[in-house]
Design brief:
mainly alpha
């Protein structure tokens, strides 16, 4: 009987090539590059924090030069509401405190692009390709929305609020406003209004992960009206209904815009896909 030929063992080098081509490839969504150690992560955080802080210091120093002009501009709505409006300070550091506070806020606004970039550069290696495509547009839209909210607060909401507050009862008492109090109320109003203008993006995020739907948000329109006026009452410095309406009506508009954005993303969530797959399976929920 003829002997059968003995098969030669596979070449280890060929197996290594196959393993390199198929077995050791990272998943499609995993970014290339080796993982950093804890020490390297901490060192990267330190470097990025240093860049962010130095940028903040630089922008704050630059804004200190123009802080007096900017502060005078911020007082202009008060002069329009009351012709002889002249803020006072009752503490030795009253005016200096307002001066530095304005410089810090403007310095933070100027340094924000660098700060956001440092945060994005740190988390970028851990994001999937799809997440990387969405991060910067969302950050950009959030920045624009916050800026629009701040501009709306200063140019639309702040003047009528000042007109009411400075002229209510001025035939009995002369309004003498501390400059620190003026700047504090203005900055709180601007910041909170900017945050409220993030509402459409917040609702879109909830819709993207399947927590809300456009139909459910439409069904809550009565609660949305109540919530808009309650929110306006909390963030506006004035208690008059005119100023609160100036804030509540745009808030309702932002809610409607949020519903439209949820409508765009709700059909792309993971939850409806899972439910549709289960509907196609057995009644017990087991795959067919």
């Amino acid at each position: 009987m003829a002997s059968q030929p003995v098969a030669e063992p596979p070449d280890p080098a060929a197996l290594d090539i196959v393993d390199d081509q198929f077995g050791d490839q990272p998943p499609p969504d995993q970014p290339p590059g080796a993982e950093l150690t804890l020490g390297e992560h901490l060192n990267e955080i330190r470097q990025r924090l240093t860049v962010a802080v130095l940028t903040l210091v630089l922008t704050t120093v630059v804004t200190l030069v123009f802080a007096s002009t900017i502060l005078d501009y911020l007082l202009e709505p008060g002069r329009q509401a009351l012709p002889d409006f002249q803020p006072i300070f009752t503490e030795l550091l009253g005016f200096i405190g307002a001066y530095i506070k304005i410089s810090l806020m403007l310095g933070l606004a100027g340094a924000m692009p660098v700060i956001v970039y440092q945060i994005y550069a740190f988390i970028h290696p851990g994001l999937t390709r799809d997440e990387q495509k969405w991060v910067m547009p969302i950050v950009g839209l959030a920045t624009v929305a916050f800026a629009c909210g701040g501009a709306f607060a200063f140019f639309i909401g702040w003047p009528p609020a000042l007109t009411f507050l400075l002229n209510f009862g001025n035939e009995i008492a002369d309004p003498q406003v501390r400059i620190n109090n003026y700047i504090d109320m203005l900055t709180r109003f601007v910041i909170w209004t900017g945050i409220v203008f993030e509402l459409p993006l917040f609702l879109m995020g909830l819709g993207a992960i399947g927590l809300v739907t456009s139909r459910r948000l439409l069904g809550m329109w009565r609660w949305a009206i109540i919530g808009a006026f309650l929110l306006a009452a909390l963030i506006t410095p004035s208690i008059d209904p005119v100023t609160q309406t100036f804030v509540a009506v745009p808030t309702l508009g932002l809610y409607i815009l949020g519903i439209a954005l949820v409508r765009l993303v709700e059909n792309r969530t993971v939850i409806p896909v899972i439910e549709s797959d289960l509907d196609a399976d057995d009644p017990d929920g087991q795959p067919a």
